[in-house]
Amino acid sequence: MSTFSQMIENITPEIYESLKLAVEIGKWSDGRKLTAEQKELSLQAVIAWEMQNLPEEQRTGYMGPQECASKSAPVPNILFKSMRPLIELGRGSISKMSARLESPLVQYAFRLGDSEVPVNPLLGTTVRLEYLGAIHCIHCGRKTKTSFSQGYCYPCMSKLAQCDVCIMPRRSVTTTRAPAVSRRGANSSA
């Protein structure tokens, strides 16, 4: 079997029931515990088999017809409705989400590598982020096992001024004049 879809076509109802039970109880029929990878693949196989062989109301995760709170219009059940292929938005280091007010809406986005990914068009869709096994410093690009101060390697975090706890971001600093203080002690005479 060369592809996942060919494997799904070869699953019999008996194999389907066995996979479904294994996912439900976390063990194979011989008592061995499923690994996380086995559980994930078995669940994917169960869902894919159900999509091809069962009516929607008999599938895993079916929640029945959904209605708005106002009961004015039915909401379609979109859980497991289609097996659309994943679309890769990009690869790279991900950064904190930004928000811009573009009246009357707030536009959300995050940086992924060198590009900005708008989040608003993704609302209501399933998004999958995949960790590719590498953490890179946002300042020097060095590969590191752990990030500090929201994305820096330890050497940059310990040397850069913007990582110092006494440095405040520009947006929160207000300018006020402090009262003049004498350099001499309060008890010294002139």
Description of the structure:
This protein has 190 residues and is of the alpha+beta class. It is 23% helix and 13% strand. It contains four helices and seven strands. A three-stranded antiparallel sheet has the order 3-4-5, with no helix packed on it.
What would the keywords be for this entry?
alpha+beta, single chain, 190 residues, 4 helices, 3-stranded antiparallel beta sheet, two-stranded antiparallel ribbon
Mean pLDDT rating: 76
- What structural category arises from helix and sheet content? alpha+beta
Indicate the proportion of strand residues: 5-15%
The whole-angstrom Rg is 28 Å
Helix content: 10-25%
Strand order of the largest sheet: 3-4-5
User: Unreliable segments (pLDDT under 50, ≥5 consecutive)?
Assistant: none
Number of helices: 4
- Which oligomerization state do the chains in this entry correspond to? single chain
Shape: elongated
User: Can you count the beta strands?
Assistant: 7
Question: How would you sum up this structure in a few lines?
Answer:
This protein is of the alpha+beta class and 190 residues long. It has four helices and seven strands, in the order H-H-H-E-E-E-E-E-E-E-H.
Secondary-structure map:
Layout (H helix, E strand, L loop, with lengths): L3 H6 L3 H13 L10 H18 L12 E2 L6 E2 L22 E5 L2 E8 L2 E4 L16 E2 L6 E2 L9 H6 L31
Antiparallel strand pairs: 1-2, 3-4, 4-5, 6-7
